[in-house]
Amino acid sequence: MPELPEVETIARILRQGAPGQPPLVDRCILGARLLWERSLATPSPAEFATRLEHQVIEDIGRRGKFLTFRLSRDWLLFHLRMSGDLVVRPLAATPEPHDRLILALEGDIALAFNDARKFGRVWLVDEVDSVLGSLGPEPLDDSFTADVLFAHLHATRRQLKPLLLDQAFIAGLGNIYVDEALNLARLHPLTISNTLTLAQAGELLASIRTVLRDAIRRNGASIDWVYRGGDFQNYFRVYQRTGLPCPECGTPIARITVGQRGTHYCPHCQPWE
């Protein structure tokens, strides 16, 4: 957490602005204040501050669970991990206790990277492949077809739940959206990948896209203190609904552990065969 829909929502708000929050695109970075050096993966703190100064934010996007800032010379990348957030504040605002990096921007505003658990990371690189090159395909890209997914599923023999969580297999999915997509596709989380038919692969891809698009439309899911502002949690089919009735058949939702991750599914709609 946050996963693809939450990161997409954050990128959109930073790029386009929101009520009471100005957009950041086309703003010049005036300086950087690194408050927790271990949040910075690369380069050195001194080089980071020097290279960032006077670069302009040209675009803000997402790749997998990464936030991508295209600057006038470099790329600034954030991975929020468990508790990271990017917050726009007045430049004169007092730093908050969990701020790890503060960027001063033109217009008397600041962008703060706040991360209570200190797992988040920041990169400043001249090309993105050094950080993002190992990520799998984007699930919403038109080039990622049912045929492509089917071929990838049959190139390995793994349980579906951990495979879909593997960022090298498909980028951006986490525990919430894998559980929801598998339920919509009526596939058990322990199903072995190379046993799926082409039709099932197509249904899985369609379900992933349906869940992600619905979550993006609802600004993601807010299930703890880390990410607020979305309401997709009010539309969960199975995630964190152990013992509650399945919306399709009324069977109580079950919870098992798969690959050390809590996993929610409907025993009737998603039979283990």
Descriptive account of the structure:
It is a single chain. With 273 residues, the protein is α+β, with helices and mostly antiparallel strands. The chain has two domains: 4-132, MutM-like, N-terminal (N-terminal domain of MutM-like DNA repair proteins, Alpha-Beta Barrel), CATH 3.20.190; 146-265, Helicase, Ruva Protein, domain 3 (Orthogonal Bundle). The protein has seven helices and eleven strands. A five-stranded mixed β-sheet has the order 2-9-5-4-3. It has a four-stranded antiparallel β-sheet with strand order 1-7-8-6. A hairpin with a 2-residue loop joins strand 10 and strand 11 (261-265). It is elongated.
Mean pLDDT comes to 96
Largest sheet: 5 strands, mixed
- Count of individual beta strands: 11
Shape by Cα distribution:
elongated
**Low-pLDDT runs:** none
Radius of gyration: 20 Å
Output the helix-strand order. HEEHEEEEEEEHHHHHEE
What name goes with the CATH superfamily of the largest domain?
Answer: MutM-like, N-terminal
**Proportion of residues in β-strands:** 15-25%
